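Structure in, sequence out. Go:
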């Protein structure tokens, strides 16, 4: 029986597994995720923050999926892979052997190279844990520092301003369409260090000013998560390079979703695109 391992339990990984199971009930399928949850609708995290949708709605997407499709879900961090030995290795001990590997490991936050980004209260809005941390911190904060320039930034600024939390926004280009007086645009300096012991307590700016805050949000710092293919023969550029069958340059190793790069094609970082690439991968694995 062949063993298909999928690193990534989100749009690309889940759609790949679903597609395989449509025609192949024999192969053993293992999905691995470093997040200790079943798959959830990542693109609805902002709606969850706004309290518009319930936690259960976020997780509805794949609730019974694993059991119904005979798929094993493993919660662990993959630290490296050995394509020649067809093995992947876990942070929490051990390894798995695969016949086919699918890298559906998405994007990851890349924090700026300053001191203190590892403190509690320094977050991005990439995963469910980030969203929960923001919600838990809300009653404790009067001020939030936000860095970013995309639509996530705009939504976050609006979210905090509505809660009468003072927003210090570090993005000279971004003007938020809001009447709120609690938004201050900081254009003449940047965050140079995050101060505090275990928890963020303040930020020090490049003009030496200090702003007290327990929450620092980096809203747009996601990059394709190519860590696992560095130091392997698998080719990558900004993302893992795949052909139109989502195959890397190594036989039996595919990649799908936000982590990929297809030469000559503009990348779309979207849920629909990740699902589509996962489906294509599943079809190519099953040759349908
Ligand atoms: C806040 C926010 C808002 C968004 N809004 C929209 C929107 O409105 N519309 C839209 O289309 N898209 C939106 N997106 C983008 C969309 O969510 C992504 O394009 C989509 O989730 C990509 O899916 P993916 O399967 O490629 O990877 P991801 O969803 O990033 O999932 C990656 C998976 O890999 C796992 N993983 C990574 N590394 C390892 C490792 N070393 N070991 C084990 N597991 C690992 C993770 O645990 C996770 O399960 C938004 C994203 C965010 C963060």
């Amino acid at each position: 029986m062949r063993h298909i391992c999928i690193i990534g339990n989100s749009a690309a990984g889940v759609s790949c597994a679903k597609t395989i199971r449509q025609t192949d009930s024999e192969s053993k399928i293992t999905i691995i995720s470093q997040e200790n949850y079943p798959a959830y609708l990542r693109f609805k995290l902002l709606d969850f923050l706004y309290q518009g949708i319930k936690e259960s709605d976020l997780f509805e997407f794949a609730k019974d999926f694993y059991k119904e499709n005979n798929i094993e879900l493993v919660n662990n961090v993959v630290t490296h892979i050995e394509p020649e030995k067809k093995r992947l290795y876990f942070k929490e001990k051990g390894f798995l052997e695969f016949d086919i590997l699918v890298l559906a490991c998405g994007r990851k936050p890349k924090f700026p190279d300053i001191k203190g980004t590892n403190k509690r209260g320094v977050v991005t809005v990439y995963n469910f844990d980030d969203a929960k941390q923001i919600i838990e911190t809300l009653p404790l904060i009067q001020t939030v520092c936000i860095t970013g320039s995309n639509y996530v930034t705009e939504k976050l600024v609006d979210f905090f301003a509505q809660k009468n939390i003072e927003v210090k926004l570090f993005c000279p280009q971004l003007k938020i369409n809001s009447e709120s007086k609690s938004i201050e645009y900081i254009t003449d300096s940047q965050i140079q260090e995050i101060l505090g012991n275990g928890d963020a307590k303040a930020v020090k700016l490049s003009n030496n000013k200090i702003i007290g805050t327990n929450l620092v949000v980096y809203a747009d710092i996601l990059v394709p998560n190519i860590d696992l293919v560095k130091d392997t023969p698998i080719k990558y550029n900004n993302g893992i390079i795949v052909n139109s069958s989502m195959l890397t340059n190594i036989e039996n190793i595919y990649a799908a979703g936000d982590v990929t790069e297809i030469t000559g094609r503009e990348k779309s970082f979207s849920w629909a695109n990740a699902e589509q690439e996962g489906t294509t991968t599943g079809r190519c694995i099953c040759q349908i």
